[in-house]
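Quick note —
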Amino acid sequence: MTNDWWADPETAGVSTGIGSEEMVTPSERRTLDEGGPENGPVLRLAGSRVTLADRVYLQIRNALMSGQFMPGQTLTIDLLSKQFGVSHMPVREALRRLSAVEALEVAQNGSARVPLISIERLSDICTNRLHIESHAAALAAGKNDAVSLAKLTGIAEAHEDCRQNNEVYRMLELNQHLHFGIYALAGSPIMMQIIENLWLRHGPYMRLLTDDLVKQIGPNSNLEVGPGHKMLMASLKAGDAAGAATALKSDILGPYDMLRELCREYIQAELDRS
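Predicted structure written out below.
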């Protein structure tokens, strides 16, 4: 389990001791794709000294969480190995770990598929997120950690800057870092694991939301993304547990109706194609 949510995604990496012990040499450090989901997932191998399996796992995990894969998209070991410039073994291990928490479905041939979506599954995920993540926010509000709060404030401000500048992919990446920074502050590794698994399962729905936000957000947009962030940060700084929990719930519920409608439209479009 990793709690490295303060680090930039390009340099993040924590060794979990699982998988290949081979380390990446300087010549193997590379950025695979600087684009967004319309150009394929952003898959990077950072320069931290962690195992190949760990690093492949972290990057696929973060790509899933931030909605860089389509519902039902197939991820083959051969293709991922070529993208990362690594052998099949670390990719196979990463896919195995993600399938163990049902973030992916693995076929007998070793390829993996992003789970399909449904409104019922979306509702179940969001219901559990509301309960667990609001509790984590309440716990975080009880911590008097000025350094962490300063970092969280910086992330929240950068998130709003990205909204104003129409940087949707970076904005959603910062949203993930803000949330997990708060959950790390709560100080419960077990809760963090549960939340991470919920975000992994929520990933395919985030892809639908991302595609829609790209069309709506810009300097002249009236769409407010992350409406609970200001209230959330104010509550954390004030040590207001109830306020932090309420703000966190508002942040989750904000896009819920939009997600339900996007989910309906996507499922209908798939049915029309078949």
